[in-house]
Amino acid sequence: xxxxxxxxxxxxxxxxxxxxxDALAQMDITDMDDVMFNMFKQATNTKxx
Length: 49
Fold this sequence. Notes:
The protein is 63% helix and 0% strand. The chain is elongated and about 65 Å long. It has helices spanning 4-10, 17-26, 32-45. The protein has 49 residues and is mostly helical.
């Protein structure tokens, strides 16, 4: 059986649509551009043996 008091304590309000951009901008999200840039940077800094 559900304990509604416990469930209400865990509840987190969702963001409003105009708040989403700001929230995402504050997160440290690695996208494909970051991955490719880091791979290229590592490849160019590596010296052949």
